[in-house]
Design the sequence.
């Protein structure tokens, strides 16, 4: 699931990720969520849930964990400042080690989180604010603790140029402050970050006692703060989790604890895992995989009644879209003609058809309810009429005062991407355009496609986005904010949009509370697609995960867009 | 016989030594950089250099080979690339570049699946192959003979992947009588194990029982013309005794030889069968290792396969001396 | 039917792709208990086929057997396999030519003898093995209790032949067919084997058919002689008659080709000219005529008419198939053959 991608160029954070769907509600600061998560109906305690994995975890060190399935799984033994919880298809951002969802008095530049004071590690010691701070400080040493997201380092103000707990063991990070009683933690940020409580779901914001930190070896035996602890971990082979009796269910709003043990069995390849899950034989009955999307055997199980209850089909965080370059395609009518010429149907067909993805009018998924808008694209509901609207396209093209009929389409030479580009080429041609196909090597695409100016600057860029946190702030700021661009580099704003009215809305969003901010960001995206015709979202990729017949309590996690094992139980 | 066995074991070990040297040399000649392969995704030139030392790739080939051989017999110690040094106990075949697990462990992990396929399939193909061959020979020229031998000829010319996929399509996808093939431990879930193994067994047995049927038939028919069979008849033995005790007994000897070698090479990995049905056995391990240029694992699987084939050869020869009293082992 | 073995008009034919091979044609002879019949002929003359027919061993094969074979009052040709099987090994048994090939290589000699005994006698395996030891002892194998566990290849040629005999005699058969029992053996052993057969015959009163190409052996052992050529009997009579006054030119040829210690050392041995005929294309008329030196004495009949089997003289048990008249044969024998004997 790990896909490197540029994110939030505002602060130059390199990011990637995986995340989520279903409805993610930004809880207001007033909501406390201190109550434990409600039990899953019908779930029983006992037994062992087996997780089949193709390979070992890249990193179990919280600071280094940046892979969808692992981000879900490591919650079994890692608590973070805030966290997502999904119950009955509804995902909330909730305080985890924190006792609230953070407060800010200066528009997002300083954030204070109250902390729960009664939490314990597996060794019986109490989790302290100092441990939370140390977790952040060690994450600055991303030369040793590599692999993870760098949001903590990127967002937190660093006036003393702090280099990390290993490089500068005696020094302090003054921007992270524990209250005298140790019941609250304050972060001073370099810039206002209104969505900071989402950022604190990442593992850099998890408690690690300095005395137990074994640096690059910490991932072999992270100290548990969750309902399970690592009993044994043979890299590349097997990880065994057993109950952590020091964990108190009453303090946890996120996690269940049904099985006695979780076993992660590593090393089988894609096909072996697919087949053993489908076969539902032996151990596979109580197994699930979080790194094996059913691909090869999909046609055998999709829409087959006997597999229905164990096959989980859901939208992944990956949105495939086209950015229309407003610098080169200046006439709004030409852009609208392009938008109408996009044949959603043939493009999705090139990617594998409706089992591979679901049509989307918006890059903000429906699950982000505060921001999602159900608008039409080229005057029709794309999920009902995915075919190209060629008559309208031709009509718009005829209206253009500054017509541009030769278009340069940039795409990456990877997987089915050339096929999708070819599908678009066909419908653009049918609408009366001439298309120059610009194929870029897989390893060198994003930077040249974002380069502004020059003879080869693309008019249409075929690309994709997966949000790092389940909110419009994880999408719209990255993709549409003109402030991210430089005169030479569009960064991840591939459509190069810089519209005065929209930038005003961005400024307003910056200082708005989360819920209001999400709404504004949704308005911005709708305007950019409907009014400015600078963007065409086509589909979200669909994930197909399978579980054994004896595993209950599995659900699609809205926080990480993956099949979550947090609530798994072994059916009697 | 003891002396003979001992000598064969010595010479078998020498052959293994030669095989390992050849495999070793081939990989050394191959234009690949093991240290780079072992380095993984977040690789730096510095890390490559450290791995180079850790894997002892900076040493001359004969020394590397010597240490490799030493590792097999007495184990060896590797310098860690980041951690402390690690002990690789005998028989040590090194560590996988891909997963960093001991190769010996990987091989032993995959052995049960291959063993399941090989043993089950061989029982099946012996049963089917021998019985149909015997019936064909006894009913030579009848429609039973013609049908079964025609079928055998057709079956022997079909490919495993073809038969396998067709059977899977029919019995798993369409009729859903069987679960998806795969490997489950027979000790924990014997029924599931058997159900998942049925298709691999049948597929392999389909091809091999055809060959064994033809072998048995021709062996039986040839033996039936022998003088000693006429003697048995002249003694007044019943045709059942003649066919089972005299004809089959003599016709079996070459079949046992072929069977031993077939089983031996199958134990080294039923490559195509495992590939077709995605069964995590030694054959699948070796194809994965070859695709990933995981040299220690490739070397391990080759040696393992060679070990089984050589062992099968020795066992077959010993067995031959038991079956055929004329054979003297010296 | 007074004789113990009575063969009447026995014919055995094998259909082949090249046509029907008449391996044995209208053969008739008989053997009494305690007597020995020597069947003599070259390879392919039908000797072995005859013996197999007596044991009924062509049943179930493609061979067409006709005529009658009576063994101790049981007719073989028309009988079913299971009926004949009960007689095999017990009422009649056979010693095969090549003991190495005729013994199963993978079973011990003792096992193979005991097996024969077990089929026809309701005894334990142990008792059968004891019988095997006894039989090996009787045929003169030293240390039989040890050698009983040997495999055929561990025996010498002579011992193997003795083992074959032991096996054939284990059930005290009334009829013993010995197919070239001494061919592969050296002279000393050959004599011992023949001696053994004679002793056993004396003891058990067995009827023996001795199949051989060696007239010398027959002369020493047999009571009667049956001379075969291309599937037909061409001369049949007592040893005394046939050897002293042989009637058929083929018999003359055979006799003059044997070196004799008692004869004139200066006499040249005369071989029979030509080669035995192929059974696929048997010469017309008298099958022997292409090789016969005396065809001129008869003329065209030799190559057109098959000669009848005619008694040499009235009331005598001596018959021959030859177109030459008794008188001519007598003249020729005295003038041209006898001096060479």
Sequence:
């Amino acid at each position: 699931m790990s896909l490197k991608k540029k994110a939030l160029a505002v602060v130059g954070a390199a990011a990637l990720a995986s995340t989520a769907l279903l409805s993610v509600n930004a809880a207001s600061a007033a909501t406390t969520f201190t109550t434990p998560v409600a039990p899953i109906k019908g779930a029983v305690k006992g037994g062992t849930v087996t997780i089949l994995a193709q390979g070992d975890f890249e990193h179990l060190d919280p600071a280094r964990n940046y892979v969808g399935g692992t981000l879900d799984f490591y919650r079994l033994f890692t608590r973070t400042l805030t966290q997502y919880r999904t119950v009955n298809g509804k995902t909330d951002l909730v305080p985890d080690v924190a006792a609230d969802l953070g407060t800010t008095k200066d528009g997002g530049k300083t954030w204070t989180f109250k902390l729960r004071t009664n939490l314990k590690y597996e060794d019986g010691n109490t989790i302290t604010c100092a441990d939370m701070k140390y977790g952040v400080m060690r994450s600055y040493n991303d030369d040793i603790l590599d692999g993870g997201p760098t949001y903590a380092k990127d967002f937190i103000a660093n006036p003393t140029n702090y280099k990390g707990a290993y490089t500068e063991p005696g020094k302090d990070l003054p921007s992270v402050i524990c209250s005298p009683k140790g019941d609250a933690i304050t972060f001073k940020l370099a810039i206002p970050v209104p969505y900071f409580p989402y950022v604190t779901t990442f593992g850099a914001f998890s408690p690690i006692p300095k005395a137990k930190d074994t640096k690059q070896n910490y991932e072999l035996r992270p100290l548990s703060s969750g309902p399970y602890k690592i009993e044994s971990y043979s890299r590349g082979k097997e990880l065994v989790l057993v109950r952590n009796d020091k964990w108190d269910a009453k303090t946890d709003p996120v996690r269940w604890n049904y099985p006695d043990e979780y076993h992660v069995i590593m090393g089988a390849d894609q096909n072996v895992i697919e087949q053993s899950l489908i076969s539902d034989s032996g151990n596979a009955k109580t197994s699930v995989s979080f790194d094996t999307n059913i691909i090869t055997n999909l046609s055998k199980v999709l829409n087959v009644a006997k597999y229905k209850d164990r096959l989980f089909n859901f939208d992944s965080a990956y949105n495939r879209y086209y950015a229309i370059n407003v610098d080169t395609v200046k006439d709004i009518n030409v852009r609208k003609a392009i938008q109408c010429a996009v044949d959603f149907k043939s493009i999705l067909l090139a990617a594998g058809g409706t089992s591979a993805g679901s049509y989307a009018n918006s890059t903000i998924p429906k699950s982000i309810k505060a921001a999602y808008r159900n608008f039409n694209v080229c005057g029709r509901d794309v999920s009902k009429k995915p075919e190209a609207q060629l008559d309208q396209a031709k009509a718009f093209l005829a209206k253009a005062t500054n017509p541009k009929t030769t278009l340069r389409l940039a795409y990456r030479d990877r997987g089915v991407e050339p096929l999708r580009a070819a599908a678009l080429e066909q419908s653009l041609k049918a609408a009366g355009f001439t298309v120059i196909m610009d194929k870029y090597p897989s390893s060198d695409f994003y930077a040249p496609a974002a380069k502004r100016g020059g003879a080869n600057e693309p008019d249409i860029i075929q690309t994709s986005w997966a949000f790092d946190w389940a909110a419009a702030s994880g999408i719209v700021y990255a993709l549409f904010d003109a402030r991210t661009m430089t005169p030479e580099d569009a960064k991840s704003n591939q459509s190069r949009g810089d519209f005065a009215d929209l930038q005003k809305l961005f400024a307003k969003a910056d200082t708005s509370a989360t819920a209001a901010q999400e709404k504004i960001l949704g308005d911005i995206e709708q305007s950019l697609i409907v009014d400015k015709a600078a963007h065409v979202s086509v589909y979200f990729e669909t994930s197909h995960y399978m579980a054994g017949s004896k595993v209950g309590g599995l659900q699609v996690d809205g926080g990480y867009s993956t099949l979550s094992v947090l609530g798994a139980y072994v059916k009697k | 016989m003891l002396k003979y066995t001992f000598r064969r074991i010595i010479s078998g070990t020498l052959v293994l030594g030669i095989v390992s040297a050849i495999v070793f040399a081939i990989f050394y000649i191959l234009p690949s950089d093991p240290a780079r392969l072992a380095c993984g995704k977040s690789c730096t030139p510095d890390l490559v250099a450290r791995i180079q030392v850790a894997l002892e790739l900076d040493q001359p080939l004969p020394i590397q080979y010597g240490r490799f051989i030493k590792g097999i017999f007495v184990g060896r110690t590797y310098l860690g690339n980041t951690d402390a040094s690690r002990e690789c106990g005998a028989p040590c075949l090194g560590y996988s570049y891909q997963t960093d697990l001991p190769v010996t462990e990987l091989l032993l992990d995959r052995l049960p699946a291959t063993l399941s396929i090989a043993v089950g399939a061989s029982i099946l193909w012996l049963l089917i192959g021998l019985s149909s061959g015997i019936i064909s020979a006894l009913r030579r020229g009848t429609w039973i003979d013609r049908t079964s031998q025609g079928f055998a000829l057709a079956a022997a010319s079909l490919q495993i992947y073809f038969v396998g996929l067709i059977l899977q399509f029919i019995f798993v996808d369409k009729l859903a009588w069987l679960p998806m093939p795969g490997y489950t431990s027979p000790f924990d879930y014997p029924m599931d194990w058997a159900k998942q193994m049925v298709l691999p067994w049948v597929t392999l047995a389909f091809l091999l029982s055809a060959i064994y049927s033809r072998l048995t038939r021709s062996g039986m028919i040839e033996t039936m013309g022998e003088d000693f069979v006429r003697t048995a008849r002249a003694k007044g033995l019943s045709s059942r005794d003649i066919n089972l005790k005299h004809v089959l007994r003599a016709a079996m000897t070459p079949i046992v030889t072929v069977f031993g070698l077939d089983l031996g090479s199958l134990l080294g990995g039923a490559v195509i069968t495992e590939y077709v049905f995605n069964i995590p056995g030694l054959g699948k391990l070796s194809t994965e290792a070859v695709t990933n240029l995981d040299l220690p694992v490739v070397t391990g699987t080759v040696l393992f396969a060679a070990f089984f084939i050589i062992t099968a050869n020795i066992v077959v020869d010993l067995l031959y001396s038991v079956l055929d009293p004329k054979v003297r082992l010296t | 039917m007074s004789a113990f073995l009575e063969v009447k008009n026995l014919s055995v034919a094998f259909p082949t792709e090249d046509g029907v091979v008449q391996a044995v044609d209208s053969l008739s002879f008989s053997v009494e208990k305690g007597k020995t019949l020597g069947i003599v002929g070259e390879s392919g003359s039908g000797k072995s086929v005859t013996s197999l027919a007596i044991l009924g061993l062509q049943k179930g094969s493609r061979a067409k057997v006709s005529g009658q074979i009576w063994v101790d009052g049981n007719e073989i040709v028309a009988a079913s396999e299971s009926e004949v099987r009960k007689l095999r090994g017990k009422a009649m048994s056979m010693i095969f030519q090549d003991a190495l090939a005729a013994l199963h290589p993978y079973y011990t000699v003792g096992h193979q003898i005991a097996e024969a005994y077990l089929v026809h006698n309701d005894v334990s395996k142990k008792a059968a093995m004891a019988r095997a030891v006894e039989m090996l002892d009787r045929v003169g194998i030293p240390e039989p209790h040890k050698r009983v566990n040997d495999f055929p290849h561990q025996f010498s040629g002579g011992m193997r032949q003795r083992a074959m005999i032991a096996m054939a005699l284990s059930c005290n058969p009334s009829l013993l067919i010995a197919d070239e029992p001494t061919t592969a053996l050296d002279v000393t052993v050959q004599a011992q084997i023949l001696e053994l057969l004679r002793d056993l015959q004396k003891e058990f009163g067995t009827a023996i058919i001795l199949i051989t190409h060696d007239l010398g052996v027959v002369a020493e052992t047999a009571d009667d002689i049956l001379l075969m050529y291309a599937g037909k009997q061409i001369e049949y009579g007592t040893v005394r008659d046939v050897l002293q006054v042989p009637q058929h030119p083929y018999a003359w040829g055979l006799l003059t080709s044997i070196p004799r210690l008692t004869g004139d050392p200066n006499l040249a041995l005369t071989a029979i000219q030509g080669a035995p005929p192929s059974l696929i294309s048997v010469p017309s008329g008298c099958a022997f005529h292409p090789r016969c030196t005396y065809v001129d004495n008869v003329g065209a009949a030799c190559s057109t008419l098959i000669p009848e089997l005619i008694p040499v003289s009235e009331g005598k048990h001596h018959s021959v198939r030859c177109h030459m008249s008794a008188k001519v044969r007598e003249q020729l024998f005295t003038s041209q053959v006898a001096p060479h004997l």
Q: What stands out?
A: The radius of gyration of chain B is 24 Å. The longest helix of chain B spans residues 103-138. Chain B has a mean pLDDT of 85.
